[in-house]
Amino acid sequence: MRIDYLSASELISDSANSVHVVRMSAAFAGLGHAVTLHAFRGGGDDAAVRAHYDAPATFEIERYGRDDGLLVRAIAQARRVGLPTGPAQRLAIGRFAVRHRVREGGLLVARNSEWLLACLRPRSRFVFETHDPPRGLRDRLITDRVLEHPGLKALVVISRPLRDAWAAARPQIASRILVAPDGADAVADPDGSAAQPRDATAPFRVGYVGHLYPGRGGELLVDVARTVPEAEFHLVGGRPEDVARLRGLAPPPNVIFHGHRPPSEVPTLMRRFDAVVAPYQAKVAVSGGGGDTVAWMSPLKIFEYMSHAKPIVVSDLPVLHEALERDRTALFVPASDVSAWADALRRLMRDPDERQALGRRAHETFLARYTWSRRAARILEAAGATS
Q1: Which 8-state DSSP code applies to residue 259?
Q2: Which residues are CB-contacts of 56 (< 8 A; sequence separation ≥ 6)?
Q3: Digit-coded pLDDT (tens) for 216-239
Q4: How far apart are CA 334 and CA 255, in angstroms?
C-alpha cells in the first residue's frame, strides 16, 4: 500500500518531532508499505538527512521550501487580509506543491492539518495525528474541516489525557480516537553496563538526553550535581541559548554539556551512562520555549531510555505513569525535590542489582509495547489498512 506521510517537521532540525516522523516513516516502510515522507526543507541534501537521522533508504523523502515565489505571494496576501501567516503558508505549500505529489488510492497519515486539508479529495482515506489539545480559531477553520471529512479513519493522540480532551471537544469522533504513545527503535544490543562490575574509582555517569527548555529540569540537574559531587552529569542536547542559560548558574565541574547531537550519535552516548533521568517539572515548555505539555506529553526520551535497558529516574508526574511503573521500570521522585533526586541516584549507585532489574524490566516493557514498528502497526490496524 502507498502511504503519504504529511509532516509539519523541518528536515534537518533539532526538534523531537523531526525524529518522530522519520522513525515512523521507516516503521511504516518496514511493514512492507511504499512510503513518502513530506516535510519542510531544512539544511543539507537527502543524503545528509538520512545520515543525520540514521534513516534507512526504505522510504522516499520530499522536502518543500518556504520561500518559493508562489508561497511568498500567498503569505503577502494573507498579511493583507489579516490572516495568520503560519497556517496560510502551510496551506499554500500544500495546495501548490504537496497536493501534486500525492497520488490517489493510498493512505494519508498526517501531522500537518493544513497540508492534509489541501490534499483531501472526496475518496481520500486518512489518519490525522496531533500532539496538542483542541485549540481556538485554527481548529475551527482547519482541523474541524479535516475531522468532518468522511475519509477520517482515526485521530491519533499520544496520551489518555489528550484523548479525553479531544473526546470532550469532538464527541462525534470519540470512537475513532487512538492513543498511541511515542516510541523508539529496538536496539540490537541493549547496553548491559548496569549489570557490570564498576571500577570503584570511576565516576557514576548520569545521562540526560533532550532539549533544555524551561521546565525540562536542567536547572534541577545543576543543583543535584552540586549535591552528588561523586557522580558525573552528562547533558546531551539543548540549543546554544539554553546551554548558556544553565552555564550562567555556575554549574559544578561534574556537569558536562554535550550540546545538540544528531540522533545518529545518541545510541553511542547512551551506552556510556549508568543511569538516565527525566526531570520534567510542573510546567514543561515545547519547541521554542513556550506552551505547556505536562498534562498530555509522551516524551521520546523515556522510550529511548527503555530501549537501551537503562535504569530510569523520573519526575512523579501523572502522565509519565502511563509508560512507566513505580519501582518496577523506574524510580519516581517529586519533580523539584533536589534531595529526593540525590537520594534516588545514590540508591542506584549503591545497588547494581537494582539497576540491572529496573533496566531489564523497562526494556521488556518497551519491546512488548513501545517500538516504532508496533506503533505503526496499531495505527494501520485502526485505519483498516494493514495490507
Answers
A1: E
A2: 26, 29, 50
A3: 999 999 999 999 999 999 999 999
A4: 21
